[in-house]
Write a structure and sequence with these properties.
With about 500 residues, this protein is mainly beta. It has helices at about 1-15, 20, 410-415, and strands at about 25-35, 40-50, 50-60, 70-80, 85-90, 95-105, 110-115, 130-135, 140-145, 155-160, 165-170, 185-195, 200-205, 210-215, 220-230, 235-240, 250-255, 260-265, 275-280, 290-295, 300-310, 315-320, 325-330, 340-345, 350-360, 365-375, 375-385, 395-405, 415-420, 430-435, 440-445, 450-455, 460-465, 470-480, 485-490. The two termini are about 10 Å apart.
Amino acid sequence: MESIFRLAFICILISILPYEMIGQYEMEWSEVYGGPSLDYPFGVISNSPDKIFVVGESSSTGFGDNTDTDSKSIILVLDNSGQPLDTITLALTERSAIFDIIPLEDGTLMGAGVVWEAPDSITTETKYNLWVFKLDQNGNMIWSHDYGGSAFEYLRGFHQISEEEFILTAFSASDDGDVASSEDGAMWVVKINQDGDMIWEKSFGNEWSSLEVSLKLSDGNILLGGDIRSEETNYDVYFVKINTEGEEQWSNTIGGPQGDIFVGATETPDGDIFGMVYLTEGTTVFPDSTSLVKLKGTDGSITSVSVIDDFFWYQTILHTKEESSVNVFSGTNDTFEDKPVSIKSYNTAGELLSYLPFPQGTTADLLTALTPVDDGYIYTANIRGSNNPDLPGEGDFLVVKLLDLNTSTENTDDLLIHNLYPNPSDQYLSITFNQQDWEILEIYNSIGKRVYTKMIDMEENLQINVSNLGTGGYYARLRNKKRMKTIPFIINR
């Protein structure tokens, strides 16, 4: 009788955790692009069912054209399965990088990024400026402009707000040239028309405010999120909402006497804001913790704050498709612990709902951009240590499509596996396959810890000894360079 109750409890547990939550996203496809040197993707957008645009910077010959420059800007056009349709190369007289791209209705493209020592900049002392350009339907340059002052400007957002008007958001360290509204660095906002002419520019925050995230909201307004100087050496977290004329709608500062760090933000479907912040000792909310904060979209007031038992900072992107939980995408570089890009989902109480790692490189995958699509997400990363022998570079473009199993109509089970049995299991677990190109089998427990790994060598049937694993809910993950498949199962004794 005790074993029956225990089995019932485990069935309830696994129905809550692994498949609806932990197994919610699968890797539909993964592609790597690049050359022998450093190639770095900065942005990705998919605004049509048949095209994906990935933008960035390359110093490799053979990726794009063979322009003999230290660095060139790349626009990689892919179909919806990740296969290349076109590669557009822009090589200026100096180093440049594209961060964002907007396909227009007439087939032209407007892009934005940064240019180092801009050729037509307002001063020869410029370190780098904002850069905006327009291309015709064949990828030829129509016009190119840069904006900034004598220090540096770093792009954080490029938003189309009407058919003919666009907004650039940036962190600026200048107080001269085009940056007339700032005394010494700020969150800088610039409105331009479709010909690149500046309509107005405005600054927000105070001296050395750092802009980290810029979101175009569902009501047409813009949210800026970052850090604002609170004392000579310390910062608070700062949110400000502005309209398309640059007028402040509301602002909210979160923090205390020590340094506090902005991590990320996203809008919920009902127009509220999820923000993630790292609050150090002495803050007014929670000391020395990563916290999930929810703000009302109408006035910026805080409706909930919860502590997260984890650390997020560098290369973290938030997104949600519902009101009560948020997906946290993260990936670190070699400065921190090497780990793959992953998704961790949290509810408004800060409780971890699921953990999904997506390892692709042999060292670390540096998450750079994310875009939601109807049936999942597409993300880009700078992949280190690619397993592709044809791409031995210092870093390459990694592009991954994640499929949301709750919205997908594809019967992936029939395509990928035939059966997993017995389930529940006590000693041995068997898997039979419909396809023969799986490379790795991994088993994770219900909190996302990997407990088993096996290389697969073209096996039609696989038997696994699970006698050393404790009673509970698990999931098996099969993967190769292109796909992943997750199957929940139970061990009961």
